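Predict the 3D structure for this chain.
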Amino acid sequence: MDPPARSPLHALAAEAMATVSMTGDLVMPWDIAPFRDIFGSPSPVLPRMVVTSNELDLARAPAVDTQARGPEFPVHQAVYMSVSRLMVFSAKRCTPEDRRELVCKGFLDVLTRYPRGSTLGPMLEAATSYVEQLAIVSETLAGKANTTLEARLRQLRKYLRNLVEDGCEEPLPITAHFFRVHLKVLLKQKVSPTAIEAAFEVVNFAKHVLGVTVEPSTLDTPWARGILRGARQDRPQRKQARALTVQELLLLEAFLRDASARIEDRYACGCFLFCTYARARWGDVISVSQFLQDFINDGGTVCGGYVELQSHSHKLRRKHGAMPLVAPVFGVGATPWAVEWLKVSETRGCPLQAIGQDPVALLQLPSVEGGWSHEPCVTKDARCWLRSLLERLVGPLFPWSPPGAHSMKATLLAMLAKFGASEADRLVLGHHSDREVTCLVCLQKFSARLALQMA
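Done. Predicted structure below.
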């Protein structure tokens, strides 16, 4: 290292040695009386270094050359970098398998602690190993979503804690008296109306899913029904995600074509547009497969078509298996956004055409060091990323109506309602299927394009 560059380093080292506290104040375990005879006398302590003030003259440090700093950040600084700390470090990044195992262990702990309270108790006592017990609980909870199970486990533990603190030794089976004690504690704590409703839901869950014995009149007493009616009456107005405006969609499509923007942000923008035009929840694209493009070319120019994915993480997967997600190649703009999205996916190194039979996440979290972290971008991450993109493009968003992850699905459905589409068509396009309504891909394509034509 040349002398001009070494001078600031020496000055910093001298300042650190002059301001550091003396090591003589530090008492190690072997310096305490009971251990002093075993380890012997302590090692000699280095004295504090005395540095004169003239050695700390930082004026001799050469000025930093502004040209040696390198190029400044581009105008389009990475949007994901401004929210990466919230996305990557704020949540527990457990895999779905790990979450499943943890929640099964939680229910197993409850059921084995009170084996006489449920029909699963004798089965768990007859099991020869912990692994067999865990398998019984896992098979019992099959088909239930991890989020639902985690919420029910928290509610069940809250019930048990309130009963145990009240002096009850066997809170299972659930009786009308035990449930009344639990509700009184919740009312005393002034919990939200949603928590009151959850107390009723967890009793039904414990009865029908876990096989917990519940006294028949537990939820049907006049007092309990009155508490439930009051909670439903006092429930605050439901906060629904607003639909994206046409201006916001046009700006997102323009940002997708902006070559000066970061490739991670452009690809995420394409994912947001796909969910919007496919009327998909963000949870629907956490696990997708079988990418398909169907373009109409006229002299080398794409003039129509669709892109399609199969969702394996939708809400109706227990009844209907994979669900097709279809989006038209044209959005509200005059340029085919899907074509640009395909190009961006190839540039980022993970082309959409490579999505085959094995389910993968459509969007992964970007790594702070660059590239991708192989962690799926979950709903709250997508909400944070989408809001940051729109704030960059549109400006400060109104605090009372910021877009959410569900705004992507609600956008085209709101357009269809304003256009006058029938309720049956909107139910199908919103993937709200029942016994009389079948989700048809052809109807998705036709009605989705119809909604965009009126925008």
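The CA atoms of residues 31 and 201 lie 58 Å apart.
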